[in-house]
Amino acid sequence: MSRLEQQLWASADILRGKMDASEYKNYLLGLVFYKYLSDLELRAVYEEANGKPEEYPSRDIQFSELTDWYNDDAEELKNTMRRKLGYFIEPQYLFFMLRNNASKYEFQIDDLQTAFIELSRQGESFNSLFDDVDLNSTKLGSHAQQKSTTIMEVIKTLDEIDLFGYEGDVIGDAYEYLIAQFAAGAGKKAGEFYTPQAVSKIISEIVSIGQEELAPFHIYDPAMGSGSLMLNIRQFLSNPEKVYFHGQELNTTTYNLARMNLILHNVDREQMRLNNGDTLDADWPTDEPFLFNAVVMNPPYSANWSASDKFLNDPRFERYGKLAPKSKADFAFLLHGYYHLKDSGTMGIVLPHGVLFRGAAEGIIRKVLLEMGAIEAVIGLPANIFYGTGIPTVVLILKKNRANRDVLFINASNEYEKQKNQNTLRQQDIMKIVDTYKKRENIVNYAHLANFDEIVANDYNLNITRYVDTFEEEEQIDIVALGREMSDLNLQIKQKETDFLALLDELAVTNETKELIEATKRIFV
Description:
Catalytic activity: a 2'-deoxyadenosine in DNA + S-adenosyl-L-methionine = an N(6)-methyl-2'-deoxyadenosine in DNA + S-adenosyl-L-homocysteine + H(+)
Structural class: alpha/beta
Strand order of the largest sheet: 3-2-1-4-5-7-6-8-11
Keywords: Methyltransferase, Restriction system, S-adenosyl-L-methionine, Transferase
Oligomer: single chain
Number of strands: 11
Distance between the termini: 64 Å
Enzyme class: transferase
Helix content: 40-55%
Largest sheet: 9 strands, mixed
Domain N6 adenine-specific DNA methyltransferase N-terminal: 4-157
Family: Belongs to the N(4)/N(6)-methyltransferase family.
Order of helices and strands: HHHHHHHHHEHEHEEHEHEEEEEHEHHH
Number of helices: 17
């Protein structure tokens, strides 16, 4: 665990005994986000006054620079920061000042509440972002002073984190670490909004293949959770600054989490289009752009949905003749995403194995997809790599207008590192999956490229074990050699027994040892 991770985790200890992880994550992640915005403002003000330095001075000096400008011409400072950052936090509400007040035990929770309200009023990007940070909750304390004390301690601990003092994407790394830890600790409920980085990397790299030079690049996640699955695409594109993120999320808390996550990853407001809504109930987006270079998704597995007959006339589903069952919306999510994929794009979706072989309506939908050549690859992942569920999952890769209808099957279910509570895909496991996908070749006990006739012969069943035989034949036993070895061992044993009996005969026989010696000899007779 890095120093950064230790500091982040220590910040959670203050709230951990008061509420469960699904609740205290809202406080901690919200405050981390607010600290980032505050510290970023301090730096932005210093840069405006002095240019970008090789090394930033202490926040005391940065704050002094801000207050000098504020006292001299507050309106100019506000307008400058709103143009540069899209927001302005009043000096008394900056995280730095809240921390100073906490050090002097002068912090009042109402100040933080006012700070959240003021920021939320500064445009759509911040509207309702802090609604889940409930500063009035009795779990923080029975009265205002207890609540202030609890949050004061959290602020003091969080302020020890230097969000800019590390190489690389420290904001993103810190945020993803927190999300992962809360998801692991809170089980299924928290795991819903987080896709492990290893799985994100597999999907991101695969959907970017052949599209690396595209700019602008539009990516869409109809069940975006924290947004992490979309964000990974930037590391595989030549123009990461020209990626446009489109995402929808039903859960309002998780939707706000995604908004924070994209801002923390320095995504410009003009390059994110996020919606809080039900992906299956009403199609979104319906205005341009509504077709995307990449569609990625890790939807809730086998979720319920209405499956109303009205959807048989919905352009997302009508060509398949059947709807996904009410109790298993897996194919509904898949078809929604596929509908929004450009003809030249690639889609990657994580689903439970049941979509590969279940019959009835799902079997009919699967058959149509295969006849269209839509399913390009089926990648089986190890069990217990997702937070909150131990079931094995599969990644389906889909394309439009393919020249043929073959399907590549990859069985990666046995290649992972087992950890205490979770199985993990190592870097070599990720590379092997992606390299195998690129080469599209047979690998014994790992991958098989099945032509369409083979799939038809299997009645459109895509169960991976029908195509990739993972059974390893045991080494043949040489019976003759084994017989000789057993005979030699018997001779050696007999010789040892003879030697042992000879040693017994050399022992002095007394009244005490006579009975023991005779009993020992009878064992070998």
